[in-house]
Amino acid sequence: MSGAHKKSLAVLGATGSIGHSVLDLVARYDDRYEVVLLTGHQQVAELAELALKFRPRHVVLTGDAGFADLEARLGDSGAHLHHGMDALLACLDETPDLTINGISGIAGLLPSLRVLESGGALGLANKESLVAAGALLVEASAQHGGVILPTDSEHNAIFQVWSAQHAAAIKSITLTASGGPFLNTPLTDFAHLTADAALRHPKWQMGRKISIDSATMMNKGLEVIEACVLFDVPIEAVDVVVHPQAVVHGLVHYADGSVLAQLGAADMRVPLSYVLAWPERLPWCADGLDVLALSRLDFLPVDEARFPAVELARGAWRQGGVAPCVLNAANEVAVEAFLKGKIGFLDIIASIEHTLSAMSLGGNVDLEAVLGAHDEATATARAWIEQKGS
Ligand code: NDP
Ligand code: MG
What we know:
The chain is an alpha/beta fold.
């Protein structure tokens, strides 16, 4: 990757953890990337600071509050300032060479669809959109020539060792899970686990929502569905193993007995650099991985009694229809309630189970159905939580 043409880049969710990792890389390569669009939701000061540093053409604040503050901070900067999700979608019609979607939750869905519908390349960290509406995203990319670049570390690992030439010989894939902060916590303690404890992830520095997902292992449940969507493999061919060192991120098993894996530090800049430079590589990582320092690599089965989330997600995928969307929506509501101290740790899974069993899950899966199911699941999960608290 060299020469005069800079890749134009949009970073959605620039103020978050993924956004920071992407922009950390971009700052090292301002000769290769031109940031054209940055978005944030609530962190106005942070968004303004990033805009002054990276000088994008467009800056979008998607959250309701703080636009006047953004204007005051960036009025003289020359950037076009926009407010709201519709404005963000309109900006995406300019189709940057690459868009990284680091928005958290279902809010990432419409921007992902818009990028793919305009034939753009999408580094998709936002796994919730893949879980809720995977078929719609894949269909949009097939119809309009867009490309989804797997960005979640495990899926990026699979992407790196997936040989298209030998696709027919791929038997299965394995996603690794660090196991999160409660890997060795007895089930008898689970009812009393706090949000503070759940946010202390042993290996990864991430946003609050995904950190709680890691603690329940729903993150891995979402990722199993994400893998089925991205790689078009049956769910029986997606295994999960707990690997506490978080060095091996994904493995592809070939029919001739070879297993190809990707290894790297637990640092999102590794997969993000692959996405930024694809189909080339960015030589940003001077130190690399010290293999001699890896005294051991452990691989263990998931303890389903303590972490039922992976099986719950598998069940939702098998059920089909809007079940994965409902699973995702109920999880978003439950995680938010847990973070606010409204429900206990075990209630997260209980409220998802309740929501799945209370709703009708079949039918067509078009965008309207997905958005409708998301709203209904949100209301159902909220009602369960309210009732629990009363
Ligand atoms: P953060 O919470 O750190 O960041 C989320 C970003 O999305 C922020 O920029 C936030 O804006 C913005 N945002 C929040 N709500 C909305 C909304 N309703 N509309 C538009 N923008 C919104 O999350 P992460 O960076 O950790 O995760 C982002 C996504 O990437 C998630 O889907 C996660 O699962 C996935 N992912 C993250 C990994 C990680 O290491 N962090 C690893 C793999 C996947 P603001 O802060 O200004 O309010
Ligand atoms: Mg992951």
